[in-house]
Design brief:
Blueprint (H helix, E strand, L loop, with lengths): L2 H12 L16 H8 L3 H7 L2 H31 L25 H23 L4 H26 L10 E3 L7 E3 L5 E4 L2 E4 L8 H17 L3 H13 L3 H18 L4 H18 L3 H15 L4 H18 L3 H6 L11 H27 L4 H20 L6 H15 L2 H7 L9
Antiparallel strand pairs: 1-2, 3-4
Helix pairs in contact: 1-6, 2-5, 4-5, 5-16, 6-8, 7-8, 7-9, 7-15, 7-16, 9-15, 10-11, 12-14, 14-15, 15-16
Length: about 425
Amino acid sequence: MSRHDFYFAAWAIVLPITSILLLPSVQGTTPGYLFALAVICPPISVLVIPKDILLRFYYDLILFVLLYAALNAIAQLSLSLSQTVQFPLNLPLVDSLDADRRILMRKTMFTQSLYVLAAASTFFFVKHLYGARWDNFLFTGAIVFAIYGIYEWAYFLIFGDSGDFLSNRTFDRGDLFGDLHTGSWSQTIHFGPLAVQRLKSLAGEPSMYAFAILPFWIYALHMKRTFTHVLLFITLLLSTSTTAMLGIIVYFIVRLCYFGPADKIVFVSLIVFVTVLAMGLFGNTIVLDIYSQIVEDKLTLQSASGASRYDTFLHTTDFFLNGSLLTQVFGVGNGYVRSTDFFSTILVNLGVVGLIMTTWIFVYPVLKLGNTEAEVGLKAAVLTVFITLMVAVPDYTALPLSLFLGIAYSYISRPRSLLSSVSRPREIQTF
């Protein structure tokens, strides 16, 4: 096994994990991010990346950093030229305690840029070095991630308490008292008298678990990894996350568009959907409880999560609409605002220009990838993650997102003759 294969194999095991910090006092020191940042450093990159690829890796990375810095510089200039800018108290700033102290060059613009750098490093590393043999590594990481979540879920079911003994991440609550809250939320859902923990694994919360595992599940399904995609689908359901439900629905719509209603998976899914719908209409209490807690309460703003998301979206878009033309076009700078969705977050941070560029990054592989089973799976994974990101999750630097974007662009950048050898059916194994 080559050195870059070995490096990725170790990285893939911890890549989805976000609730463990190797340095508990330093945010961002998750194992996955440290792997991503380490590979940028010359001693590591020279050791890991082959010489014929190293220059291209650094060229792409430096070009991206320069473009990113230019966008932020223009955004900061736009902010400085705006007459009067005030960050209202209801605007979801990354650091709300600093709201009245600094307008330009906020500290969070630099700290959040480190996450962007880690995501870019992951993307370019995978884009230039991905091979079909890596599928075993990335699926192994997803399986470990899922199994820990199932362990937590079963532990709570038996003992009525959280069994998470690995998470150590905490966040500042953002209030005047400087209190901390855990970076690993144990949330429950009730089925009548029974309380069940929503599966979250080491992602911090159920919605982030769903967002991280969705592309793995879709890709495993298309790569015929039966055990893997069944296991991951079960964990998505156990997360009882609206994000998971949204991602699953989007995927099946995409699959329906590609394969039509005669497709076996689409056909079975439609039967299951109609059956569950009928059970709900005839008053099945379990179905009604699930629908009420996952869908209805959030859409009608009866749940705290749904109401909070709606308010945050309104406050963020209101700030954007009331900004100057310059800040609407170029934003105020990345790392300022973190809403509960990426759409409003990117509009404020990098404006319409940033939204268009980000959208193109996701749309391009969907347009350019071919129609092999693997490529259709990548199209579906990228499209599903993009829609989920825009609607429900603001974490655009999540490493699974960069991983699958990197794989998609790797397929695009290779000659078709090489691609066919990468995705031959005989190399698609069942895990």
